[in-house]
Amino acid sequence: MNTSTQESLSKNEIGITAFVLILLSIIFFHNHIQQFPSHIHAWTQSDRYALSLGYVDNGLDLFHPATYNLQPEYPAQETLSEEKGITRVDLPLPDYFAAVIMTITGNKNPIIFRLIVLVSGLIGLLYFFALTRSMNATFGFSLFSTVFLFTCPVFSYYLNGFIPSIPAISLAFAAFYYYWKYLKYSNFRNYLASITMLIFAALIRAPFILPLISMAAVQLVFNWRNKEILMKEALWLLLFGSLFSAYYTYNQYLGEVYGSIFLNKLMPAQSFSEWKLLVIETWFFWKWQYFSLGHYFVLAISFLIFLWILIRKVHINNTLLKFILIVFVMFIGSIFYFTAMAHQFPDHDYYFIDSFYLPLMLFLSIGLSQLHFTEKWKVLGINSSMFIVTILMIYSSYLIQNERYTTQGWDRTEITHMNFEGSNKLCNEAGIDKNERVLVIDAYTYNVPLILLDHKGYTVTNTSSAKINQSLQNHFDFIAIQNRFLSSDVLRNYPQLRSSLKPIANNGKVGLYRINTNQSQQSYEMLLGLRDQKIIYSTQYQNDRELIQTSDKDYLVVLDSIFSLPCTDSISLIFTAKANMIKENKEGLFLVLDLSCPGENKNFKHYDAFSLHPFFEKTVNQAEIEVTLNVPRLMQRNIRFKCYLWNSGHNNLVYNDMKLQIVQYIKHTF
Q1: How many whole angstroms separate alpha carbon 2 and alpha carbon 17?
Q2: Residue 165 burial by Cβ neighbours in a 10 Å radius (0-12, 13-18, 19+)
Q3: Rounded Cα–Cα distance for residues 557 and 178 (Å)
Q4: Which of 173, 278, 293, 462: disulfide with 342, CB 3.0–4.6 Å?
């Protein structure tokens, strides 16, 4: 790496850095850049995507942000005369820019939103490189620190996502680049550029008001005796600050009049002991997502250099002193922010980007900018070490990205996303008008199923009896329910629906229904629309035959056979049974679908375990187990189908009327 200590930035340096960042982006994101909001925090990311789609629908009305969800989590103060999905939210500029491009191109693909966030993030990284270089760091250290930031696992993940934290922190990096230039050259235009970018960062993501406050406080202390500069800075700061205050006031108005699906309140710890517990939980869940081992090593070295600077007071001029104080004040502010939002940190990794990342990265820049070596053996050793650590950071972060994009069996948000894919076509087949409103009873997120259905409406994220009953009071036209959770999460909690749901369409993954209260109770098979489908396989144990699974019997095989099925995603495995739980009801009972290929493609494997415990939660003499599992699109022939009851909780059970079917949905509308 080039170890030149010249301060000026050259086009070659910017070009090399941009090339490295683009290359890393291709390596990290080429598999996911077109993907629908998925996996970690798909809930929030899909809400942001829905904002863009809402802008497309409302004619790009910036000041009335709306999503597909018509029932805000935090209701308006008065009942709405007309539900439009308008919501309180920090100024959604990235979402708006995505909507502008979608409108111009006529393309609503998520790649547009992802690219806007990615490009803004890469520009922010280039500004971070320029800042570090301007602080007299060598080109090698500046490039290293930029790659360091790119490969921070949580930063990399959201760099290819929908969260506004990335555009906001990118603006902050640009702001501190211009602020550094202002401190060095006293060009007031740089100060204006700095506070302008910080204000827009705060408008996009409110916690970024803290860096602006930190900058203002330090400038106030150092310019206290220079009234002319102080008044000039304060005047422009108040002018730009009023912009933030104006939108904040308007945002409060949006919340009062229309409500909000986004959090609009503080969530502090109630005591110091709770605060400590939340710190421990946050560290436990996210420590290897914030940074990898290589990152922590570099931060530790930077901290030691920082201490050496403070103790020896080496190279501390007025400019560097101001910068150090701002970083310190920002770090203290981040601690206060953590305290104010403590309950959010264990569940939301991107809150770390909103708070601690900026001061930590500036702290890194300060430390690395003080390292200069002239001896060839030291230069060679440092460059070799940086190269090795860089490779380790890239490799560690890449593995974590792949892990984050892996679908887990417990991830109901991702399961819901996969089930609702193509459901807009199902609505069209059923003749449902675009303006009809839908009620999704087992949504698990506010907007994912609504976006994929391409209909505005209401979502039930908690399928308790009270919540389902409350949702049925909304002004909807039809209902959508996932087959997978129809019985376990919906009918089990609200059995009245068996006699009021009228099936109108089903594609094997999602069923569409109208409400018809004048009908008799319907069976599970009727609600799934199985009458007109192709039954590929069916087996049933008659009423007079009991199957017993004792506590020492972990597996009860229901099916183990070789099938050659058509290549389609409309095949389902449907299992029903009556079961008595003898003695204690312990968790640990699953219906498992295990697919493998004994022939040429031995690497093929599909495993799906569905918990049957919900069917036994209520005190019943006999549980009615009803489960639908989706069979993935199979490219292989001669697939080994295994379906078994896994008794990991060592329960004692007796099964009656057990039935298993493999069904291909060939008729979607009824």
Answers
A1: 12
A2: buried
A3: 68
A4: 278
Residues present in the chain in total? 670
Say whether 322 sits in a helix, a strand or coil. helix
Low-confidence ranges of the chain (pLDDT < 70): 1-8, 312-316, 542-545, 585, 599-602, 619-621
Q: Of all helices (H) and strands (E), which one includes residue 47?
A: helix 42-57
Of 360, 638, 665, whose CA–CA distance to 503 is shortest?
A: 665
The answer to whether residues 594 and 607 touch, using CB atoms and an 8 Å cutoff, is yes
The DSSP-derived string for 373-437 is --SHHHHHHHHHHHHHHHHHHHHHHHHHHHHHTSPPTT-HHHHHHHHHTTHHHHHHHTT--TT--
The CA distances from residue 331 to 185, 303, 326, 357, 479, in Å, are 26, 14, 8, 9, 49
Predicted pLDDT at 600:
62
Give the rounded percent of residues in the chain with a pLDDT score beyond 90. 74
Exposure string over 173-190, b if 16+ CB within 10 A, otherwise e = bbbbbbbbbbbeeeeeeb
What is the three-class DSSP state of 317? coil
The domains of the chain are located at 120-148+164-404, 412-532, 534-664
AA letter at 657: D
Residue 352 · residue 344 · CB < 8 Å: no
Strand partners, 559: 643
Look up tokens 């007079």; give the residue.
Answer: 544
Integer angstrom CA distances of residue 345 from 355, 375, 527: 11, 45, 42
What DSSP character marks residue 15? H
Which residue, 639, 561, 632, is CA-closest to 602? 639
Residue 585: predicted pLDDT: 67
| Residue 105: both structure tokens together | 């191109």
Note the pLDDT of residue 1.
42
Local structure of residue 569 (DSSP, 8 states): S
Query: For residue range 83-135, what is the model confidence (pLDDT) as tens digits?
Result: 999 999 999 999 999 999 999 999 999 999 999 999 999 999 999 999 999 99
- The amino acid that residue 32 corresponds to is H
Return the CATH fold of 534-664: Jelly Rolls (2.60.120)
- The amino acid that residue 426 corresponds to is L
pLDDT digits (tens, 9 = 90+) for 285-341: 999 999 999 999 999 988 887 777 777 655 667 888 889 899 999 999 999 999 999
For position 3, what pLDDT does the model report? Answer: 43
How far is residue 159's CA from residue 165's CA, in Å, rounded to a whole number? 9
- What is the spatial distance between Cα 294 and Cα 147, in angstroms, rounded to a whole number? 12
- Neighbouring residues of 624: CB distance < 8 A, sequence distance ≥ 6: 487, 576, 578, 615
Dihedral of alpha carbons 83, 85, 88, 91, sign: negative
Look up residue 43 and give its amino acid. Answer: W
Cα gap 258→276, rounded to integer Å: 36
